[in-house]
Amino acid sequence: MTTYNFCAGPAMLPVDVMKQAQEELINWQQHGCSVMEVSHRSPSFMAVAEKAEQDLRDLLQIPANYKVLFMHGGGRGQFSAVPLNLLSPTGQADYVISGSWSQAAAEEAAKFGRVQSLDIRQKQSDGLRTIQSPAEWSLSAQADYVHCCPNETVDGIEFVGLPHTEKPIIADLSSTILSRPIQISDYGLIYAGAQKNIGPSGLTLVIVRDDLLNTAHRTIPCIQDYRLTAQHDSMFNTPPTFAWYLAGLVFDWLKRQGGVATMAEKNQAKADLLYGYLDQSDFYRNDVAPEFRSWMNVPFFLADDGLNSRFVEQAEANGLLALKGHRSVGGMRASIYNAMPIEGVQALISFMQQFERSHG
Ligand code: PMP
Q1: How many CB atoms lie within 10 A of CB 16?
Q2: Could you tell me if residue 143 is left (phi over 0), alpha (psi between -120 and 50 degrees) or otherwise beta?
Q3: What percent of the chain has pLDDT over 90?
Q4: Contact 9 CB / ligand 1 (< 6 Å)
Q5: Rounded to an integer, what distance in angstroms lies between the CA atom of residue 185 and that of residue 249?
Q6: Cα separations (Å) of 304 from 112, 119, 251?
Q7: Where does L-glutamate bind (predicted)?
Q8: How far is CA 193 from the centre of its chain?
Q9: What is the secondary structure of 197-260 as a DSSP string?
Q10: Is-above-0.95 flag for pTM?
Q11: Ligand 1 center to residue 76 CA distance, Å?
């Protein structure tokens, strides 16, 4: 039976990449050991590290004045690294709240300095969840930066526009990076935990404009210091080498797929298919206004909550894994990142139809 893994993260990785990693695992490049077991400073690992960075730069067309950092600590590590590096002792930062991850980022930043939270969540008269568009955000003139999370993994809310502001925009792209083209120069800094669209957990990507590297204002742990990390090409301490290697395989795979523009077409097609099905159904529903629906994380609810555990159980029995919604939201969630083929979404929809027929 073919299985499809809808987990929000750690998430499904491309099957071709997993096969390559499996083939290379024990005897990587004829070294007689695995890539996990070689020095990060060895020429062969350095070549892996450099190729991964170059491929990422090509995929996202990262301008030369941006550094790419391969860090530890996941998304939450960045929730503290961002204010530690960028929030001045007397300054303030604007945190735009569109869901639970941006809320968590704001709470963490408030430990280190002054934070203005702008809650942009709203409900339409028909009950659908929506958010204010960027032009409506009331940003403060004195903020050191504006933090936002363009794709909220738990809430299933995504926005693509950004506000017009002179302030650096800091974006948590953990669950949407590489899913569609973006203009890097619109951002001061982007970060993303690897475990959704990049590779295994344990690696965190940071893409930062180099003028922001001189702003660490206080005592800061070495492994969270952007400037230090950049000065040492992300090797001040031992980086998560296996995750870095695997990310490199994913970047290579993405290039072979045709890059992020092709991924965007595929991701839109998958999302349209699933939302289209949900919208015509009385048995299932998604409650996000169409223009803010996430391409990556699709929460949905059964009309009868009492069927939730049976749905999850039977889905698993049919090879459709990890559909249970986030505990704070309930219902179901299908995460359909880059590695999920359209066949996975088709299989999910035919299971949902069948489940409706036998329980509707
Ligand atoms: N930001 C977003 C958008 C996320 O989806 C997550 C995790 N799902 C995090 C931050 C936290 O990441 P981590 O668990 O790597 O700290």
Answers
A1: 15
A2: beta
A3: 97
A4: yes
A5: 26
A6: 44, 31, 41
A7: 41
A8: 6
A9: TTSSTT-EEEEEEGGGGG---S---GGG-HHHHHHTTT-SS---HHHHHHHHHHHHHHHHHTHH
A10: yes
A11: 6
pLDDT tens figures, 43-81: 999 999 999 999 999 999 999 999 999 999 999 999 999
| 188 three-class SS | coil
Catalytic residue among 55, 67, 155, 196: 196
Q: Where do the domains of the chain lie? A: 4-15+259-359, 27-256
Ligand 1 centroid, distance to 326 Cα (angstroms): 13
In 110-163 the beta strands, taken as DSSP E runs, fall at 114-119, 121-123, 129-131, 143-148, 151-152, 157-158
CA-CA distance, 11 to 99, in Å (whole number)?
20
Is 238 annotated as contributing to ligand binding? yes
Report how far residue 342's alpha carbon sits from residue 271's, in angstroms, rounded to the nearest whole number. Answer: 9
Confirm or reject: Cβ of 76 under 6 Å from ligand 1: yes
State both tokens at 184.
Answer: 């890097």
CA atoms of 257 and 14, how far apart (whole Å): 11
Q: Is residue 237 a known part of a binding site?
A: yes
Q: Which CATH architecture has domain 27-256?
A: 3-Layer(aba) Sandwich (3.40)
> 3.90.1570.10, 3.40.50.720, 3.30.420.40, 3.90.1150.10: which CATH number matches 4-15+259-359?
3.90.1150.10
pLDDT tens figures, 109-132? 999 999 999 999 999 999 999 999
Whether 217 has a pLDDT exceeding 90, the answer reads no
196 is catalytic: yes
Q: How far apart are CA 190 and CA 200, in angstroms?
A: 18
- Going by C-alpha positions, the residue among 17, 320, 331, 74 that lies closest to residue 195 is 74
pLDDT, tens digit (0-9, with 9 covering 90-100), for 218-243: 789 999 999 999 999 999 999 999 99
Q: Are strands 320-321 and 4-5 parallel, antiparallel or unpaired?
A: parallel
Displacement of CA 55 from its chain's centroid (Å): 18
Ligand 1 centroid to Cα of residue 101, in Å, is 7
